[in-house]
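Case study 2.
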Amino acid sequence: MAVNSERTQVYSLDSAYHGHDMYLSGTAEIALAGLLANSVHYIEKLPLKLAAVSRCYRAETSNVNEERGTYRVHQFTKVEMFAITTTEQSDDMLEYIRNVQEELFSPLGIHMRVLDMPPHELGAPAYRKYDIEAWMPGRNSYGEISSCSNCTDYQSRRLHIKYKDFNIENYVHTLNGTACAIPRMLIALLETHQDPRGKINIPQVLQPFMNGKKDIVKNTKIPKLKLKK
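Prediction:
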């Protein structure tokens, strides 16, 4: 496997084994958008909302001390939301995605803030973008845990995704947002809910997924060893 990080910040696969122009995906947004390529949708069926969980691969690195460890890793699991809308629907859909993100994160007991990003912080596809940051005590600063973007017709023109309105075809608007990026969410949860004795208090909303446990403590039990000849 070769890395082409300076130009694309993604991992490219060795062409000798995998053929030419093969890369590891950095987000499920790519697959979800590709799923709708070369399609035409009736206006009555929009907005169309999709979601996917996937393994994500990023070649980007950082020399910032606060971004060491699990804050910036080369592969991680992420749940991604994706939507296509008419031109008139996309502004409201961006607010809908942001509200979904806030409803997901608020019950977790983490302190967070929402940033309406200025134009110079936007990538080429994005018309408008929100970043959601959580306070991470170990870093003594906020760290991004999620974002959502309205890309208008930047992607749909390249992928030929359209909608039909009275037999007139127009390009859809595409939007995306992170529902959960596992490593940074774990950082925010563990550091926020750790008490002075080292015990991790589990937020109530997550306890049903932890077999009813209310906290995580150091394992003091010695596992039984069974020797096999």
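The chain has a mean pLDDT of 88.
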